[in-house]
Amino acid sequence: MRGLRVLLFILAVMIAMTGAAFAAVDPVTMKLDGKVIETEVPPTIISGRTMVPAKFLFESMGGTVEWLEAARQVKIGYDGTEVLLTIDSKTALVNGNEIKMDVAPTIVSRRTLIPAALVAEQLGCKVNWINETRVVEIFTPDKTEKALITGIETEETSNGTYRVIIEADRELSAYKDSLYDSPDRFVLDISGAKLDQALIPEGMTEGSIEAGNEMFDKVRFSQFEAATVRVVVDLTGKAEGEVSLSADNTSLYIDLKESEDSGSGPSGNGSTPGDVGNNGSPADLAGTDIPMLAASMQDKLIVIDPGHGGSDPGSQGKDSSGNVLQNEKDLNLTIALRLNELLQAAGAKTYMLRSDDSTMALYDRPAKANELGADLYVAVHNNSNESSTPNGTEVHYYNKNMDRDYGYVSKDIADSVHQEIIATIGLKDRGVKSSPSLAVLNRSVMPAIIIEGAFLSNPTELVYMMTDQFKEAYAVGAARGIIKGLNASAEAF
Ligand SMILES: [Zn+2]
User: Fold this and answer.
1) pTM to 2 decimals?
2) For residue 5, is pLDDT > 60?
C-alpha cells in the first residue's frame, strides 16, 4: 500500500519537472475487482494522488455516497464503515476517528474528486498501483471471510464472576486483549469481524450495554477498523480479564474478576499496559503490538517533522549511473504519515509539520513546535554518507535544560524508540547519540528526537528502503517506542 504512495509521489515529481502539473500525460485507468471503471471524468492526479469522482467509484462497489451541501461534506458508507470527507480538508473521519490525508477532496468542474486509493483502503479494500500500465487496482474485501458479531451480552456466573459474551455467526480466531488504566478498562479487538449494525443505535458509531455491576459499569463496542471489532469493558476498579472461546469457537468470553494485586499497572501475566497477549493477525493495526497511550498522556501534543520537502529533497538514493531512485523527502513523508496514523490510533494528539511535498525552512520547524506548545518533537529522517559503506539505524537526542517539566527527557523517548525500531527495522544498531548541534534538537524547547532510519547511500539498504516492509517497520517501531516511552513516564509519576 505504501509503495503506491511513493510511486505516486515520484510520478508527481516527474510531472512537476516537466513544468506542468496537470499536463496531458498517459491517462490513469481504474479497475475495480479486475473490471475497468468508466468514470464520466477521467481520474486526475493531484499532489501525487489519483482523484476520482466519489459517487461513481463507491456506488460501483455497492456503497452509498451522500453529498451534504451545507457542510460541503461527502459521506461514504460501505459494509459498516463510514468515511466522512470535507472539501478542501485533509482530515477525514472514519467511523468517527480522525485520519489525516496528504491531499484534500476538491471540486473540479462541479464534480467532487476524492483520493480514491486512500478512501478505498479505509473501507478495507486492497489497492495496487501498476506503474507500467498506469492502472490503479482496487479489490473489495471478501465479505465471506469475515465473522459477523451478532450479539454482545453480560451475565453473572454462579461462582461470582462476571462475564461478557460476544457471539458470532461463524468461528472467531484472531483477537487481542489489552488492559488500560486511568480510567481502568479492558479492551478486546476482534480481527476479521464485522459488527452487526443492528447492535448500534441509528446515527451512532458505538453501541453500549449498561451493566452497573460491581466489576464494570458499561460494555461499549464499535467497528474500530474495516475488519476489526473493538469491545471495551469500562471497569469500576482494578480487575483481571480472561478471554476464552466457546467449544464451537463461535463465541468469545471475557471473564472478569478482581485483580489480586490492586496496585497500578496491568494484572495477569506481568506484561506492560496495553500489551497483553496477541492473537491478532499481523495484517491489521491490531497486529502492530502498539499499546494505547495512557490516558494521562493523551493531552500531550506530539509534533511530527517529516524531514526536508518541496525544494529540499534531502538525501538521494541513486543507481550506479547516477539516476535518482528515491528522494529522502518522499520516503520521510510516507513514513511520517503512517506514524501519524498509528499514533492517533493509539490515542495520541499529533501535529504534522508538513503533510504534503511543501517546503519548510529548517529553523521554522522547531519554531512552529515551540509556538504550538508541543510536548514532544519527532523528526523522521533517513541517512546518507559520501561513502556507500555506512549502514544502519540511529536515534539522536539532546537533553536540554528545560524551564518546564514534561515528565520525561529527550533521552527517555530516544532510548525507547531506539529499542523498538532496531527490532522492527532489523538493520545494524548505530546506537543513541547526543547531538546538541542539530538545529531541531537545540532550537526546540520540548524533548526532541531525530530518527535516522537507514542509509540511502548504501545500495543494499536503498533496495530495502524502497519496500513497503521497511516503511511499515520504521513507522510501527517509532510509534511503539514513542507510546511506550510516554507510558513509562506516566507510570513513573
Ligand atoms: Zn534528512
Assistant:
1) 0.46
2) no
